[in-house]
Design goal:
The complex is a heterodimer of chains A (409) and B (230).
Chain A (H helix, E strand, L loop, with lengths): L1 H14 L3 H39 L4 E4 L17 H8 L6 E13 L4 E9 L1 H4 L11 E2 L9 E5 H7 L6 E7 L5 E12 L4 H6 E5 H8 L7 E5 L7 H11 L4 E4 H4 L1 H39 L1 H9 L4 H31 L6 E2 L4 H6 L5 E2 L5 H27 L3 H5 L3
Parallel strand pairs in A: 3-8, 5-7
Antiparallel strand pairs in A: 1-9, 1-10, 2-3, 2-6, 2-9, 4-7, 5-8, 6-7, 11-12
Helix pairs in contact in A: 1-12, 2-10, 2-12, 2-14, 10-14, 12-14
Chain B lengths: L1 E14 L2 E14 L3 E5 L6 H8 L7 E6 L2 E2 L5 H11 E4 L11 H12 L3 H14 L15 H14 L4 E5 L7 H18 L2 E6 L2 H4 L4 E6 L2 E7 L4
Parallel strand pairs in B: 3-8, 3-9, 6-7, 7-8
Antiparallel strand pairs in B: 1-2, 1-4, 4-5, 9-10
Helix pairs in contact in B: 3-4, 3-5, 4-5, 5-6
The chains are: A alpha+beta (409), B alpha/beta (230).
Chain lengths: 409, 230
């Protein structure tokens, strides 16, 4: 401990011996750290938004379907679990929300146009926490109950169909007997979505109304369960498996949308690669600074060795100096990155490149996501790699012969 | 008791195509409490002998003993420990760590030794007063004269009461008055604390303070005499 005291004092004073060099290096570390954390927050936000949007359309963290539904998502593959039974079962476990839905391909027709869409028969009370649609922001109104006789469509689809709130449309699909099932509905609401494709493809109607139209009794296409965090759905998955007890297929969202799941996993690896790449750029400056510092202090190092300081302590002094510099840079860089993210917490409007982003399933509003784990990762990686980068100049300093170093001109 | 014993030391340096014999079969014994001046013209081998005694340089052959312990075969770490605990050094120049104040420089060796903060501060202030630098505790080397810096180096060399102090041309950069002051301080420590001093010099004034004068030439001891010190 007494050695650490003197090493720290020497390291600190030596750092400020050459103010300009230290400040330039510090600036590089601060900028590098800021870029690491800030850009990671933006990328995290982008991917999280993409996944969250994807899940809200899928939707749900855990999903239950007929075993054949994934191969043939038609009306023929429904599950026969009533809401009454599910209410009883889910009443005993802790999940954020659950809902059952009819999800079938359908054709929507106005007096001008027809379009193929995905028809979602939902119970609006169950759906409120799960869907991407903000009920309060709907023009007109959202569905009021499972037997609501209206439909809510996306604003983009309404434009395509040349229809609006109050006008009637016809929805047509197939029943389990492969007969045409159709019905006229009044458009009661228009929703907006972050991704325009959702506005074009999804049509919401009352679940009971659609079950009647399709003549499927109380069967549904899917049961969805929502947890607190889409990154960790194991608890919800296990609870659902227990409740369903083998009567249908239970899948995590990550198994249903491999693209989104892969994106999430790749992101973790990408963050690490990104941090390492920035560090590598920094490390050239860091090593150069340390080599220069050692070179300038050869005689001083020789003196300390001659006075009885062990080579390991000389090594320690250079490493402490390096880590001190990195720690200051990391602290300032992290604080600046945090400060830069704060004003963007309510979202950054990227609508100028919105079409391009939608192509990748991203919304045009970006919400940076500053994760503590990313901040810790960036700081730890830089300190650990900084330690290894400092070893070479530090080792060189520790290997000096005292008398040769002292007499070096 | 023998403080230093060197037996048949040889050391050769290569300079260009030429081999320079810095130590040529040198043997010397110095008793505890001795005050010895090694004098030689430049290249005579006095600094090489001093460095070999201090464990800063290894002889090509021969044996070096400090307080009865053979040191020429010790590892780097063991030599560092020996220097830390038993030997005080005063070099000709570049004696101080520039980023530390006078007091911190004096404390340095004690801090590496693990002396408690309060104790080492007290001893550092006392010793600085003893070498005539009272009130200059917080000055950095760059704010002190050459003489003051050399006194700080002496204070550091003696503060932990080493049995042996090795000084290489300690007065080379000092004026005559400061030189005299420094040598009187050495003699005082030698008389009062029985500290052994081995001083490499070619300064006649310094030699006049020695109890024993060892003259070297071309790496060999050519004269070894006891004398009445000034």
């Amino acid at each position: 401990m007494h050695m650490f005291g003197i090493l720290l004092r020497l390291a600190w004073r030596n750092l400020w011996r050459n103010h300009r060099r230290t400040l330039i290096m510090l600036l590089a570390i601060v900028l590098g750290t800021w870029a690491m954390i800030f850009m990671t927050a933006l990328m995290r936000g982008m991917v999280s938004q993409m996944v969250a949007d994807g899940i809200s359309v899928l939707p749900g963290h855990v999903q239950v379907h007929h075993p054949d539904y994934r191969d043939d998502p038609s009306i023929a593959n429904l599950i026969a679990i009533s809401d009454t039974e599910l209410s009883e079962k889910f009443g005993t476990v802790d999940v954020t929300g659950w809902a059952t839905r009819i999800r079938v391909p359908a054709v929507i027709t106005s007096e001008y146009e027809s379009r193929g869409v995905t028809l979602l028969g939902v119970d609006p009370l169950q759906e409120r926490d799960l869907t991407f649609v903000d009920y309060d922001a709907v023009e007109g109104r959202f569905l009021e109950s499972a037997d609501d006789s209206g439909v809510v469509i996306g604003r983009k689809l309404a434009t395509t169909l040349n229809t609006r709130v109050g006008k009637r449309i016809v929805l047509m699909s197939q029943d389990p007997e492969n007969e045409i099932a159709d019905r006229g509905f009044r458009v009661v609401g228009l929703f907006d979505a972050n991704v325009q494709a959702y506005e074009e493809n999804y049509v919401f109607a009352g679940k009971t109304t659609i079950q009647k139209m399709l003549r499927v009794g109380d069967q549904v296409s899917e049961l969805v369960v929502l947890g607190d965090d889409f990154r960790d759905v194991e608890a919800e998955y296990n609870k659902t498996v227990d409740l369903i007890d083998g009567r249908a297929e239970v899948k995590r969202w990550i198994e249903l949308d491999a693209y989104l799941g892969t994106m999430l996993n790749v992101m973790d690896g990408f963050v690490l690669v990104w941090i390492i790449v920035i560090f590598l750029a920094l490390s050239f400056g860091l090593v150069n600074t340390l080599v220069m510092a050692v070179f300038e202090r050869v005689r001083e190092i020789g003196l300390m060795l001659a006075l009885g300081m062990r080579p390991i302590n000389i090594l320690g002094q250079i490493i402490v100096e390096s880590l001190l510099l990195l720690a200051i840079g990391l602290a300032i860089g992290t604080a600046l990155a945090w400060a830069a993210v704060q004003p963007m917490k309510d979202g950054v409007d990227l609508s100028i490149v919105g079409d391009g982003m939608e192509m990748w399933g991203m919304s045009s509003v970006l919400y940076p996501e500053l994760l503590l784990s990313d901040v810790i990762l960036a700081n730890v990686v830089v300190l650990v790699l900084g330690f290894f980068a400092s070893l070479s100049p530090a080792w060189r300093a520790a290997q000096y012969e005292p008398i040769e170093a002292i007499t070096k001109v | 008791m023998t403080a230093v014993r060197c037996i048949d030391l040889c050391k050769t340096y290569r300079q260009g195509d030429e081999d320079i014999k810095a130590l040529d079969h040198v043997s010397i014994e110095i008793d505890q409490g001795g005050f010895v001046c090694l004098s030689a013209p430049s290249g005579g081998g006095k600094t090489t002998l001093l460095n070999a005694i201090g464990g800063l340089d290894k002889p090509d052959s021969g044996e070096v003993y400090i307080a009865g312990q053979r040191i020429d075969n010790l590892s780097k770490g063991e030599l560092a420990e020996l220097r830390l605990r038993q030997i005080g050094f005063v070099f000709q120049a570049f004696n101080l760590i520039p980023v530390l104040t006078a007091r911190e420089n004096v404390e340095f060796v004690m801090q590496v030794q693990g002396v408690a903060a309060a104790e080492r501060q007290k001893r550092a202030v006392e010793i600085l007063e003893e070498v005539g630098l009272a009130g200059l505790d917080d000055r950095r080397p760059s704010d002190m004269s050459g003489g003051q810096q050399q006194r700080v180096a002496v204070a550091r060399a003696i503060v932990s009461r080493p049995a042996l102090v090795l000084a290489d041309e300690p007065t080379a950069n000092l004026d005559s008055r400061t030189s005299d002051g420094l040598m009187e301080l050495f003699r005082e420590l030698n008389d009062h604390h029985n500290t052994t001093f081995v001083i490499a010099t070619h300064d006649k004034r310094v030699m006049s303070y020695a109890k024993r004068l060892v003259r070297m030439l071309d790496g060999r001891i050519v004269e070894d005499i006891e004398q009445d010190a000034a």
